[in-house]
Amino acid sequence: MIREISCGDVKDAVRGAILRAVAILPDDIRRGIRDARASESNPLSQELLDILISNYEISQKHNVPLCQDTGALCVYIRIGQDVHITGGDVSVALDEAVREAYEGGYLRKSVCSPLDRLNTRDNTPAFIDWEVVPGNKLQLLIVPKGGGCENMSRGSILKVSDGMEGVRNYVLQCVRDAASAPCPPYVLGVGIGGNMESCARLSKKALYRDICAPNPDPALAEMENDLKDSINAMGIGVAGSGGDITCMRVNVETHFTHITSLPVAVSFGCNSLRKVEVTL
Ligand code: SF4
Predict the structure, then answer these.
(1) pLDDT of residue 165
(2) Would the N or C end of the chain have less CB density within 10 A of its end CB?
(3) How many C-alpha atoms does 38 have within 13 Å on its Cβ side?
(4) Edge to edge, what strands does the sheet with 276-279 contain?
(5) Model-level pTM?
(6) C-alpha dist (Å) from residue 266 to 44, 83, 140, 230
(7) What residue ranges in 11-136 does DSSP mark as E strands?
(8) In the 8-state DSSP scheme, what is residue 242?
(9) Domains assigned to the chain
């Protein structure tokens, strides 16, 4: 049965989610940082991890942003095929939510045109990704995405003969190139398969999966752990401090691909990996 959801309800939900997301670090990322602190042996890295823990506690207590970079606002929408959105254009409603949250919340506005670099001054437009799913619910994943980690994301289409080893080498080379720029300890989302654009989306899907939930496929779960161990063995560490922990977690997602292709994409999520999910 068709269910109606108004643009006004979408706008209010997204505005509230943005204001929560910028100040409250998700539970899985907190756990990742605490686990990193528990396993870290380098004194400087330990101190930096303690500062990150204090930072997220202060942010939540005083309702202030976790980081000065409050991100470009991404909205990943899973819309039930039995949902009818009423009362206007939902893209306009999402932009209005961004405008109200960033202006009302005194958050940094970080969105500009790509070549002349003119700031839009209200952090619009939202970056929107749509997926149609069965059902009559509207699920919205709200992500204020920092630029430092996004800038290090990469993608390529490898030769099929490169195989699993080629994927592994590509991911590790992306990490070597990124060094400490994505603000470690970070999460890595790896997409394998699809085509050029869907592989990039897969890597984002991987990035925002709960970091306490390994891939249900045992071979991919092993790949995730192997990549994480190999990254941490590089000794980059928090803020490039040379410690044991650079990467909290690698999540891998795969999809079918063309017989001539082996696409791979890597997305970085920094120590302020912010995400809030709301369902209407
Ligand atoms: S990458 Fe993340 S932690 Fe680093 S400056 Fe940007 S938002 Fe902040």
Answers:
(1) 98
(2) N
(3) 7
(4) 127-133, 72-80, 138-145, 276-279
(5) 0.96
(6) 28, 33, 23, 15
(7) 72-80, 83-86, 127-133
(8) -
(9) 3-23+66-145 (no CATH), 148-272 (3.30.1330)
